[in-house]
Fold this protein.
Amino acid sequence: MRRRRRLLPEPERHLMTHLRSTVWGPAEFVGLPPRWLAAEGLVAGCVTAGAIVGVTIAGAWYGIPGLADGEGGLVCAAALALYLRVMRAGRALIAIVALIGVCLALQAPQAAVGLVLAERGRVESVVVTSVEVGLGAVPGRDRYLCSVADRDGVPLKIRIWRGCGRATRPGDALAVVYDAKGRVPPRGVEAGASRAGPLRDLAGWAGTLVTACLVAVVRSHRLSHAASRRPDQPASTAGP
């Protein structure tokens, strides 16, 4: 026998609908979302991702600490979250977009330094003075940190891990790339590294941010807003 679905009372149905709309967005459309709304979400995500990466690169290139450290990118991520809040997007989706934006802003500084060094860096040889073992980015894999000194015997203020490995010993020579204008810290030279590498590392975060923003904007669609913004189109029936 087919089991009957228990229907919720009218007040409870309205409450569930309201909660679903508040958390994930109302998504009041049937079939595919309006093209203009999808375009709006795509543009908002692309502009924000480009702004986060762009201001960080500009900060590293011109030596502006507030931008080079990712603070400008965090402001861009906050502005996107505020825009979605004004759009009355779902709160869960706003939080997801904000989190991805923060992650992109925190990843951008290292990529910006790599891009600056790839464009105007010069490679010099340094001497290893000591080697220490530190925690790596991947659990279970140690990272070796080399203290180095330049050709005049002046020690660098930072330790180098790129090019520093298990077989590295004090007295060995390492290749280090310096910024010709001294605006970003030096780093070791990695074999096989390309100029496009720093930005390629951010592509995944940027693409995820654009996708999440697109979903949040599309799901914020309300029939009342659509009628006021697109008076030339008849209102459609609200979907489930």
Observations:
- Strands lie at 121-135, 142-149, 173-179, 187-188.
- The chain has a mean pLDDT of 83.
- Residues 175 and 201 are 23 Å apart (CA to CA).
- The longest helix spans residues 91-120.
